[in-house]
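Weekly puzzle thread! Below is a chain. First person to post its structure in token form gets bragging rights.
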Amino acid sequence: MRAQPGPALKTIASAAALTAALTAALAASPALADDTQAWGAVTVQGALSGPIRASSETVLRTSDAKGFYELEQNLMVGYKANKHVTYWLGYTFNPQYSHGTSGTTENRFRQQVSADNIAKIGPFNLNARLRLEERWRDNQPGTGWRLRPYVKLSMPIHGKTNLNLTHESFINLNTTGFQKVAGYDRWRTGVSVSTPITKAVSIDVGYLNQHTFVRNGPDTDDHVANIGLTANF
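Winning reply:
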């Protein structure tokens, strides 16, 4: 007898199919779509000693318009102050490409405060994060300061499988040779389904809209099929 997939994997498969269909439908609409993209992330995090934690995140991004265009490697060390709040310091190595051809490289120093399960809103658990970044690019002058507030609402839909709603804002605090405009630059709004696939590893599949505000021109939208694997130790 052939083994049947469990309810969690069926939910993830349905979410992946829905994400692909939604992304394709938005891409087919010229009124809505500026670019169709696919993002993948692998995150490994865990305790080092007592309240000290470490996190490594690798992100790959590709798009119809730019091909493979971005790699992000984020390394962070955190201090877990209590069951809800963790303080983090980290570094981001961010080479950028055009259709796989190397372009500029961005380096970032980041500081953030993460707050997990800090409130209940109806059936949803509230998580939040406030991140400050200092950014430098090769052969371009200045330090770009950027603030990234983030909120996440999670609701269990079957066992340990969750529906997630997320929103992140990108706010430029100054201008440089590469950070051209100060103020509200863009947002990322997403919906996803996450579930554990082993005791330590979980998967998250969903759709994300990245809306960029363009001064003196039409705003742009990126429609993103998004998948992430997270391992906690």
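Puzzle host: Confirmed. Bonus trivia for everyone else. The longest strand covers residues 101-121.
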